[in-house]
Design a protein that fits this description.
Blueprint lengths: L1 H24 L1 H78 L3 H23 L1
């Protein structure tokens, strides 16, 4: 039995030696691959973190964009109303400028009407004196 044990031990040793030899024969390549794997994992972790952050920022930007669009709609309604008022105010200013023009230029018809009214007032006041 000991021969079998010795033979198994020798065969196991040879297998271990060949595995060790073939594995460490290309240890530079293996070490480079391991370092590349570590750096790739770190970069993947960093990119996942960045993706999470950008996703969160994107959701915040979408919320703010919808809020701003709603405010823009409200402001456009206000601007439309203000433009209507502006048109009315502009028409009113044109009318007031026309009225001031008429007030600054004396009209002969008005002077005649004023004379007639003052004459009537004098007649009425004279009639009241007699009573």
């Amino acid at each position: 039995m000991s021969i079998y044990n010795l033979l198994a031990f020798v065969i196991g040793g040879l297998i271990w030696f060949f595995a060790f030899y073939f594995r460490y024969k290309h240890r530079d390549v293996i070490n480079e691959l391991r370092s590349n794997l570590k750096s790739a994992n770190k970069e993947l972790e960093y990119l996942n973190h960045e993706l999470d952050e950008y996703t969160h920022q994107n959701s915040i930007l979408k919320e703010k964009t919808t809020e701003l669009l709603e405010k823009n709609d409200e402001l456009s309604d206000v601007v439309a109303e203000l433009s209507k008022y502006y048109v009315h105010i502009k028409k009113a200013s044109e009318k007031t400028s026309e009225l001031t023009k008429f007030l600054h230029e004396p009209s002969p018809d008005i002077e005649e009407k004023i004379k007639k009214l003052s004459q009537k007032n004098k007649d009425i006041s004279n009639e009241k004196k007699f009573f």
